[in-house]
Design a protein that fits this description.
The complex is a heterodimer.
Chain A: H1 14-41, H2 48-55, H3 57-90, H4 93-107, H5 111-122, H6 127-134, H7 148-173, H8 176-184, H9 189-217, H10 221-226, H11 234-244, H12 248-272
Helix pairs in contact in A: 1-12, 2-12, 3-4, 3-7, 3-9, 5-7, 7-9, 8-9, 9-12, 11-12
Chain B: H1 2-20, E1 23-27, H2 31-49, E2 52-56, H3 61-70, E3 77-81, H4 82-90, E4 117-128, H5 141-144, E5 154-157, H6 164-171, H7 184-192, E6 198-201, H8 204-213, E7 218-222, H9 223-231, E8 237-251, H10 259-269, H11 272-282, H12 297-300, E9 311-313, H13 316-335
Parallel strand pairs in B: 1-2, 1-3, 5-6, 5-7, 8-9
Antiparallel strand pairs in B: 3-8, 4-7, 4-8
The chains are: A mainly alpha, B alpha/beta.
Chain lengths: 280, 336
Amino acid sequence: MSITLAPKRRGSGLGLAMPAILLLLAFFVVPVALLLLRSVTEPEPGLHNYRTLIGSATYAKVFFNTFFVAGVVTLVTVLVAFPVAWALAIMPQRWASVIFAVILLSMWTNLLARTYAWMVLLQQTGLINRSLMALGIIDQPLQLTNNLIGVTIGMVYIMLPFMILPLLGVIRKIDPAILQAAALCGASKGQALFRVLLPLAAPGIASGGLMVFVMSLGYFVTPALLGGTANMMLAEMIAQQVQSLVNWGMGGAAAFILLIVTLGLYAVQLRFFEPKPEVR
Amino acid sequence: MKHIVKAAAIAGAMFASGASAQEMVFTSWGGTTQDAQDKNWAQPFSAATGTSIVMDGPTDYGKIKAMVEAGATTWDVVDVEFDWAIQAGQQGLLEPLDFSVIDKATLDPRFVSDYAVGSFYYSFVLGYNPANFAGDKPSTLADLFDTAKFPGKRTFYKWSAPGVIEAALLADGVTPEELYPLDLDRAFAKLDTIKGDIIWWEGGAQSQQLLASGEAPIGFFWNGRIAALQADGMDVGVSWDQNITAADALVVPKGTKNKDAAMAYIAHATSAEAQAAFATETGYAPINTGSAALMDEAIRATLPDQQTAVQINADMSWWAEHRDEIGNRWYAWQAQ
C-alpha cells in the first residue's frame, strides 16, 4: 500500500499498537503456526504431505489455476480501474464523491449475495443472455458461468475498489500541470499516457495490483460458485481436504505453500515498489 | 489494560455460569432442514425438559476432529452424513450411543450403528424440468447420462458422497446386486462421457435454482428439494426408478460435557412423533418405524419409504471404509 511515511518521531508507538498485535498473535499467528505444524505431523511426522502436493499432476493444475486466475483477475482489474480512478481524480469534486460512495457501497454488500446476483445475471437463462437473444445479437446463450469468464467477471467486480483506492491516492497527487507540460513539449496523447502518467502512477498500480493478486490467490466463494471444477483454485482444495476429507495435514501443507508465495510477493513489493519517503 | 483483563474475566465467568445451566448445542447443515429440526425436535424437547438448545452450524468435519483432539468439544449433537459417522466412530471421534436411553427397537435397522442413528433418510432421484423436454420424458438413470436423447446441462451433487457414483454404474448397466464393491474405474469412465455437460450443485437451494431456471433441465437431486418445488406449485418431473437412499446421522462428538442431555435429545429427535413431524415438513423419510402411522396419507405417498420396490440402498459401511480413497479420486477427477 502506498503509505506516505512521516518523518520518524521519538517514542515508537509500540504500546498503542499492542492490543492489535496481541489480537493478531492470539487469533492469527498461533492458529496458523499450529496448522503448519499439522502439515508435517499428520498422519505421521515427515514431509510426505508436501511430496504428495508437489508430485501430483492434479495439484499442479490447481496451483497453476490459482496463479493463472489471480493473474487474469489482476490484469483486468487494473485495466478497468485505471480509467475509473483517472476520471474520479479529474471530475468535479461533488460528482466524484457520489461515484466514490457507489464504489464503496458495493464493498459493504454481502459477498455471497453479490456472487449469487452475478450467477442470476450470467447464467444461460439469465438476464444478460436473454437480453442479447431478444435483441437478436446471439442465437445460442453464451456460456458465462462455470468457467473462467464467470470467475473473472465476479472477482474483478469484487476487487475493483481495492485497485481504485490506491490508484486514486497516487493519481490525485499528480500535478495536472505536468501533463500540460508534456503536451507543450509536443507529446502526443499516447506519449503523455505511457511516458508521463503511467510511470507516475506506477506505485499505485503496483500496490493495488499486488493487493488484488494476493487476495485473489486465496479466494474461495466466488470461484466455487461462478467457476466450474475445472478452474478449481487452491482455497477450494484446502476446504475439501479439511472439511470433506478431514485431512488437516494436506490442507495445512497447501495453506503453507500459499502463505510462502504470498509473503514472497510481499517481499518483492517492499523491495522494488514501495515509494521512497517524500522529502519535505 | 487492567480494566480490560478484569472485564474479560467477568465476561468469562458469566459465560461459564451460563454454560453450566442446562444448555446444549445442536449442529446441523443450516437452511430449511435445520429450521425444521429446530422447530420439530429442539423446541419441543426444550419445552418438555427445560434444556435449552443452541443451534449452530454448518456441520464441519474438520472442526469436529479439531474439537475432539483439543479436548474442547462444544458441539453436543451433530447432524452428519451416515458414512462419515461410521468412519468417525471407528476413528474414535464419537461417543458410543446410550441405547438404554435411545429406543433402538423402534428404529429402521438400516440406520443404526454403535455410534450413530439416522437423523432422516432421503433418496437421490432423477428430476427434470418438463418445459425443456417436449417429447419423451427422461425416466431412467441411463437417460440421465444420455446427452443425445436428452440434451442439455445436467446437475449433480458436487461433494464426494454416496449417490452419483452409484448412479453412473447403474446407468452403465451394472445391476443393483453387483453394485458393491463399486467399480470406480467404470464409474469415472461413465462420468467422463458427460463431464462437459455437468454443472455441480453445492447445496439444496442451488440445485432447486438450477432446475427451476432451466439452467440445468435435468439432474440428480435430494428428493426433499424436488418435493419442495412441487409444493410451491412448480411443474417438476421426477422419476423414482433406481432411487438411491442415503441418510444423515445424529452423533455425539467425544468429550462432550452434556452427554446425558445429548442422549436424551437424540432419543427425542428419533421418536415416532418427532420424526413424523420433521418428515411432514421436509419430504425426507422418517427413520422411526412408528412414524408412518402418524402421518397424513397424501404426504406419506411422496416419501422415499414408499419407493422401496425401485430403491437401492447406498452401502454406508462400504463407503465408510473407502471414503478417503474415493474422495481424493473424486476431487482430483473434478479438477482435471
